[in-house]
């Protein structure tokens, strides 16, 4: 029988306390647990809906599914979603995200596996999701190869990850110098009273690196940068909220300098956007 919200809250609180001690402050851990407990439609599906639609009876794979939020949200909408997550039992963790996920549904929807070796046949899924995952894996090229192997020729792969050209580390929730060498980063974290173990496991990602990973794959026929498209949509719809953004909007409407200002803004976004968000199409 699936656990209720109260039981889930207790498990998540214990999981964050055990696995994120020395990485995130107790206050941040509480905020993240609260956000994990919020129900709603799967954000990834809403994000990609303007560019691609799930076919009837679609199969979805959440690669690196964590505590199972995306899979559970999809299942509540009647979608056939599955997740894979490394099982950390025997590696120092008493409570794992895979254990928590498996308690959330009455049916088996998760498998213990690593992204470099997925236990599925070729061309099984219509959508493969890698949401905040690619920066954690050992071999990014191999994981992408596996994602492309198990997605159908008519399917898509969604990738979202941090951009480490930003002055922020999203796991530790602190200011961080872009692409800081791991030795200096570990020293800096210790000075901040944080443990460097997670930093050593991370692979610094940037928008340019993600683009190159996708560009080097011959199976991919088209890539949509979702952050870029969102920015361009705001330009077209004149829907910027802040005063500075509205001033920028006036500049791009100028016939003389507008195109140059827009190109400069798009370059800035590619370099300094807080995260990468890409949708890769196998075939058009």
Question: Class by helix and strand content?
Answer: alpha/beta
Fraction of residues in H or I helices: 40-55%
Which runs of at least 5 residues are low in confidence (pLDDT < 50)?
A: none
Shape label:
globular
What would you report as the Rg, rounded to the nearest angstrom?
20 Å
Mean pLDDT: 89
CATH superfamily of the largest domain: Vaccinia Virus protein VP39
Specify the number of helices. 12
**Spatial ordering of strands, largest sheet:** 3-2-1-4-5-7-6
Q: Quick one: biggest sheet?
A: 7 strands, mixed
Structure write-up:
This protein is an alpha/beta fold and 284 residues long. It has 2 domains: 5-226 and 274-281, Rossmann fold, CATH 3.40.50; 230-269, no CATH class. Helix content is 42%, strand content 15%. The protein contains 12 helices and 7 strands. It has helices spanning 5-19, 26-36, 43-48, 69-76, 97-102, 140-150, 182-191, 197-201, 207-215, 226-237, 243-252, 258-272, and strands at 59-63, 80-85, 110-112, 125-131, 151-162, 222-225, 275-281. A 7-stranded mixed sheet has the order 3-2-1-4-5-7-6, with helices on both faces. Helix 5 links the parallel strand 2 (80-85) and strand 3. The longest helix has 15 residues, at 5-19. The relative contact order is 0.12. The model has no long low-confidence stretch (mean pLDDT 89).
Offer a quick outline of the entry.
With 284 residues, this protein is α/β, with parallel strands linked by helices.
């Amino acid at each position: 029988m699936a656990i209720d919200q109260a039981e889930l809250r207790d498990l998540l609180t214990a999981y964050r306390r055990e696995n994120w001690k020395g990485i995130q402050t107790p206050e941040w851990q509480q905020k993240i647990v609260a956000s994990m407990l919020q129900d709603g439609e799967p954000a990834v599906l809403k994000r990609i809906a303007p560019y691609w639609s799930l076919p009837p009876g679609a199969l979805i794979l959440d690669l690196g599914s964590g505590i199972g939020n995306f899979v559970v949200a999809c299942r509540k909408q009647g979608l056939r979603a599955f997740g894979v997550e490394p099982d950390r039992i025997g590696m120092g963790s008493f409570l794992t995200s895979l254990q928590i996920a498996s308690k959330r549904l009455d049916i088996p929807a998760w498998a213990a596996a690593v992204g470099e070796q997925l236990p599925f046949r070729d061309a099984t899924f219509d959508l493969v999701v890698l949401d905040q995952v690619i920066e954690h894996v050992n071999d990014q090229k191999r994981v992408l190869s596996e994602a492309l192997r198990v997605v159908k020729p008519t399917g898509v792969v969604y990738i979202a990850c941090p951009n480490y050209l930003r002055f922020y580390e999203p796991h530790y929730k602190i200011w961080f110098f872009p692409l800081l060498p791991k030795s200096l980063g570990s020293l800096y974290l210790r000075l901040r009273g944080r443990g460097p173990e997670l930093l050593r496991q991370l692979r610094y990602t940037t928008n340019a690196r993600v683009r190159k990973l996708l560009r080097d794959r011959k199976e991919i026929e088209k890539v949509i940068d979702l952050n870029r498209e969102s920015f361009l949509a705001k330009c077209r719809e004149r829907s910027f909220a802040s005063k500075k953004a509205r001033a920028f909007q006036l500049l791009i409407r100028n016939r003389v300098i507008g195109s140059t200002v827009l190109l400069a803004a798009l370059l800035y976004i590619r370099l300094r956007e807080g995260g990468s968000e890409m949708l890769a199409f196998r075939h058009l």
